[in-house]
Every structure is written in structure tokens, then in C-alpha cells.
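SEVERITY: medium
COMPONENT: batch folding queue
REPORTER: lab tech (J.R.)

DESCRIPTION
The queue accepted two submissions in a row. Attaching both inputs and their returned C-alpha cells so the on-call engineer can compare them side by side.

ATTACHMENT 1
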Amino acid sequence: MNARATTRPGGRSARVQQSVHQAVRDLEAELGRDALTVPLIAARAGVTPSTVYRRWGDLRELLSDVAVERLRPDTPPADHGSLRADLRAWAVQFAEEMSSTAGRTYIRDALLGDPEQGNAARCSDYAAEQLKVLGVRAAGRGEAVPDVERLLDVLVAPLMYRILFRPSDLSAAYTDPLVAAAVDHPEPSAPLPKS
């Protein structure tokens, strides 16, 4: 994705982004993904195709930008009274949402249209922010809290691998042992050997 599309624009630029993103969502729902073209999206959004090309580069980069916005959590994670309960609920919800057909499509779109991996970092930041909220909440209750990087390595990384490559049985039976490994052994992962 080009640098202009990764910023959160204001004014006219924000309105263009919003209308183009909405056009993508509407047209995908109405016509299906295979029917999407930049001219069709631009017409629906009320902008010229050159505006879309200038801002996003091509259809893949536009779909990537839309996917990243769709992957952004809408609300903070729910409070279930303890870090373990919060992480269990968060992990199950994350697995359900991301392993759905739509979720996997958004993940792939976010990565495919992003040769510089800025969208991957944004998506990772979304998960990290959610985990930080849970950690701050747990620390406020006096609980020991694993480092966010530990949670990403022990909980999120295996989930993402399963979601993308082996998307079967991502129920609590799979996520609970990951949560237990992160909470019961909060020490950081061993550093990778130097090559």
C-alpha cells in the first residue's frame, strides 16, 4: 500500500477514503468480489478512477486497505474478571472471527496488497493493543501479567498459523492450552539463535 493510504486522513481525503471503502463493501456484497474493478468502485464512490489509482495504486492495494480497516477491532475486549478469563474469551472470539471465510479473506487481502508489510504491522498492532488493554486491566486487579510480546508469540502467532494454514477446530479446546501456556509461564520466550 502506498504511504498516503496508510495515514488516517482528515477533511476531503477522509471523505474520499470513506466513500471508496463503502463502495468496495457495497459492491462486493451486491456483485461479488470477482466483479470489482477500480472504475466500478470509483463510479460508486463518486470519484474518478485516477483518484483511486493515485491514492491506492491498484485494486489489490485498495482491497488491502479496506481489509485492514475491517480487521480493526470495534470495541475493547470484554472484562470477565481475571486475566485468564479475559484471554480465554478474547482468544475464542479472535479465532472465530479470523477463521471465518470473511476473516481469512481480509487477512489475505491485507497481506497481498502490501508489499512493504505495513498492513501486517498495523494488524499486529491491533492485536497488541487489545492484549495491552487486558494486561492493564489485570495489573489493576493485582494480577501478574505476561509481556505483550510473550502473548503475541504464545497465543496469537499459533492462532494465526492455524487460521491461515490449518483452519480446523479453533475452539476453546485449542485456544485454552495456549492461554494457559502464556499465563502459567509468563517468562519471555527464549531468544532466537543468531545465524
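ATTACHMENT 2
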Amino acid sequence: MFESTLESTPRTRIAIDGWYAVPSSSLPWQVSGAAATARPVERLPFTVRVAHTAQDLQKAADVRHAAYARHLPAAVTQGLRSPELLDHAPGVAVLLAESKVDGSALGTLRIQTNRDQPLALEQSFDLPDWMAGAPCAEVTRLAVAQAVHSRVVKTVMLKAAYFWCLRQGVRFVLVTARAPLDRQYARLMFRDVRPDAGFIPLPHVFNLPHRVMYCQIATAREDGAEHPLYDFWFNTDHPDIDLD
């Protein structure tokens, strides 16, 4: 569920090389005055932030490897023990969820925009004409630790990814998902880029079959109006999400 603006959020946008970025001061938990106090605020037992240091990226890699190793053979996951080259590329952000109790890593995901280079997905999949050339982002390497809050961690990280994409002026958000993980994106209103294609083997991810799915930011709020997570996503502030 992704959407371009929030009702209580100023609609200021800054043009950057054809992209439209929303200033950080426009994020709902950074709005001051009556607009801020009118919204419910929910504190979490963990934080979500952008990974900046080598130590941050290694913590993310550790969560990735542990999560992927639960489902894939060691030969496939061995390369995930360390940060990947794409983690350091321009136009990329790695989000990291950490416990407030001990600072341990609880989850991670990576967002890549096509501002500086094609999406990783485009190594194996041609974007349709109506999407090609538009500001796009791909969410990959979603992984959570086996912990009591894992489902909440995953949901909050995806919400954080929405706000990061909002700030970057992204129009379409893409994911590739294996079964049964594709269902979680379908529940968040993601749709198949090519509905007739089903699961597609993708050479750049070991030729494993994935659904290629997307969400259009401009229509997501309307699309998700009846979704059970609507208020959590759009009408609740989570100050523990820090994207600066």
C-alpha cells in the first residue's frame, strides 16, 4: 500500500532531475502544530532507520543470510553473508530494524531506484512501456529475524519503505516474490506487472520462479481504503521510523 501524499502532509514537492522529492519536514511524524497532535502516535519496541555504516550493513547482511538460509540451500545463500555491491550503490537505501532492548537486528530490506542505473530486476525482466522510463524503485532483500515481533517488524519496514519512496518521488514500486511470500504483497495491494505471466524464472536470482508485482503510489491510498491496515499505514504516526 503506497500513496503519494497524506491528507495532513503539506504537498510541497521539489523537482530533482525529473523526479519529485518530498522534503523530510513533510513526513507525518515531522509535522508540527495541530496537524501533528491530531494524529494517533504509536511507539514500537524497535526502531527502523537507514543503514549508513559498514557495521550497519553487516548487521543487515546477517539477518538476510539467516532468513534466506531457512528456505534456500547453502550454495544459494553463501554470498549473502556479507554486504552486496548494490548496498553501496547510489540511489539505494538499506533499511534496518533494531531492538530497543539490546540493539540486535530484527529485520532489513533494500530499496533501489532507477535514477542512477537500471533496477536489478531489469537484468531478467523487461518493464512494460507504460512503466519504463518512469521513476521506479525495487524493494528486495526483505528479511526478518525469528522473533516474537517478526510480523510487525515486516509491516513497519514496508511502511518505512513507502515513506522513503515518497520522499524520493517514486511512481512505481516493484517487488519480485516467490511462493508463498507473494501473498504478503498481494495483501498489501500489489498487482502483477503482467497478470498472464504468473511465476517467471529470473536468471539474476538463480533462475527461481517469482511473481513480478508493483504498486502505483498515486492510487494506493484510494486502492487501500478498505484495507484492515489502512489506519496503521496512513493515519498513525510511528516516530520510531527514522529516515534521515
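NOTES FROM REPORTER
The chain has a mean pLDDT of 86.
No errors were logged for either attachment.
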